[in-house]
Write a structure and sequence with these properties.
This protein is α/β, with parallel strands linked by helices and 399 residues long. It has helices at residues 2-13, 36-39, 62-72, 78-93, 104-117, 121-126, 149-153, 164-170, 192-202, 219-226, 252-260, 277-292, 295-313, 348-357, 383-398; strands at residues 45-48, 97-101, 136-140, 157-161, 175-181, 206-209, 230-234, 246-250, 319-324, 334-339, 361-364, 372-375. It has two domains: 4-51 and 294-398, Alpha-Beta Complex (Aspartate Aminotransferase, domain 1); 62-292, Type I PLP-dependent aspartate aminotransferase-like (Major domain) (Aspartate Aminotransferase, domain 2). Helices cover 41% and strands 15% of the residues. The longest helix is centred in the last third of the chain and has 19 residues, at 295-313. Bound molecules: pyridoxal-5'-phosphate.
Length: 399
């Protein structure tokens, strides 16, 4: 009952905004008067940064929260739910097959395990011991990143290459998979389409980690259409689903093989990465909402927010602002603020600290030391005014 009342209130509070631009509201207590975070002594904040894991990801649209609550009051068979949601997701995304995972990092584990074990049931029980199995994954050296530890969970080792020739020479009968870190595409010598093509040419499955590269929603299927066999995406970043959800998308035989590793069975490598019915259903609804959203309208709204904050803070003499959109990772409008430290006598690092420690607390995106950078897509409607005022005040006080 409580949650229902909350939905109605927040839904009517922001009737004109697209679903991807709203969280489901609420700073204060519930209708029953509980303020859980306050009771726990936790400070809330305004997210003028990104859906970082440490900041608990994105806020879910209210329809995803409603789905979460719906699932929490009903029993359903886990395998049947997995099947049904996988089918639906594949249909609406436009790919062969799909499964909800416990995040993109979990998607990396399931996808890798699938490439190693395929339909070999003995092998499923054997992992992470890969004796007698394919146990190498090829990656470009500059694509190496923290999340590639997930490959090692399956007993698979990474083989680093730099050029097309290196890659072709590295492929052998033990090659299970080729991994691409989508965000790093500009840095590698082998670009995304060529990487997919090389996998096809040699009959090796290719896997693209696009965790933070949605929106645009088209990225859910673009890389599969390009020829990748698997793609994983975070649920709690740009898709705005539950933070502990993700998607593994791609070839039907591989998704089926991945599912063998997932609960309810306890014989696969993924038993510790269970996805609850609540998370699964909310994730499905979050994807629906993303696909139904108007990306151009959202983009314009983000630009408007960037413009608003930029106009306000550049009223302080010596401050310059710039709008930018990172090419792949969090590809939405952002604001960069710089100032002449002779005129505004405070270091960017200090402004960041004051924003975090102020009231309300404001978190920014991480940035180089000579500026501050803001994301505006995680703001609740209207928060751009608070953010603009705080930053302008802090800079003006140092001018
Ligand atoms: C965030 C991220 C992940 C992990 O995603 P989770 O959904 O938090 O598991 C993996 N790869 C990249 C490139 C990421 O940015």
């Amino acid at each position: 009952m409580t949650t229902r009342r909350l939905f109605l209130r927040t839904a009517s509070a922001a009737p004109l905004l697209g679903t991807t631009l709203t969280g489901c509201g609420g700073e204060g207590p519930t209708a029953e008067g509980r303020d859980y975070f306050k009771e726990l002594g936790l400070q809330q904040f305004i997210n003028a940064g990104e859906p970082y894991t440490s900041l608990t990801g994105a806020l879910m649209p209210s329809e995803a929260v409603e789905a979460y609550v719906y699932a929490s009051t009903r029993y359903v068979r886990l395998t049947e739910l997995h099947d049904a949601i996988g089918r639906k997701l594949a249909e609406i995304i436009g790919c062969e097959a799909a499964m909800v995972t416990a995040g993109a990092a979990s998607g990396l584990v399931f996808g890798t395990a699938a490439c190693v074990t395929l339909d070999n049931d003995e092998a499923v029980r054997q992992l992470p011991d890969t004796t007698g199995l394919k146990n190498e994954a090829i990656i470009q050296k500059v694509h190496r990143y923290g999340y590639d530890r997930a490959i090692g969970y399956c007993g698979v080792k990474l083989v680093e290459v730099e050029t097309r020739e290196d890659l072709e020479a590295a492929i052998n009968e033990r090659t299970a998979m080729m991994l691409f870190n989508n965000t790093k595409d500009p840095d590698g010598q082998i670009k995304v389409a060529e990487f997919a093509e090389l996998g096809k040419k040699h009959g090796v499955p290719t896997f693209d980690d696009c965790a933070a590269d949605v929106p645009p929603a088209t990225h859910l299927s673009d890389y599969l259409n390009m020829g990748f066999d698997l793609v994983t995406v975070s649920g709690g970043k740009g898709i705005r689903g539950p933070q502990n959800a993700g998607l593994l998308l791609g070839r039907k035989d591989l998704i089926e093989a991945a599912r063998v590793h997932s609960p309810p069975s306890s014989r696969g490598i993924g038993r510790g990465m269970k996805v609850s019915k609540e998370t699964m259903l909310a994730m499905y609804v979050a994807v629906e909402s993303l696909l139904a959203s108007d990306h151009e309208a959202d983009w314009k709204e983000w630009e408007r927010r960037v413009g608003f904050i930029g106009d306000e803070v550049s009223k302080v003499a010596g401050v310059t602002v710039e709008m930018f959109a990172p090419p792949l990772h969090y590809n939405v409008p952002h604001l960069r603020i710089r100032w002449d430290e002779a005129a505004v006598k405070v270091q960017p690092r200090e402004v960041r600290r004051q924003l975090r420690e102020g009231e309300p607390s404001i978190e920014l995106r991480s940035s180089p030391d000579d500026c501050i950078e803001l994301g505006v897509w995680m703001l609740k409607p209207g928060e751009e005014r608070i953010v603009a005022d705080r930053i302008r005040e802090l800079l003006a006080a140092a001018a």
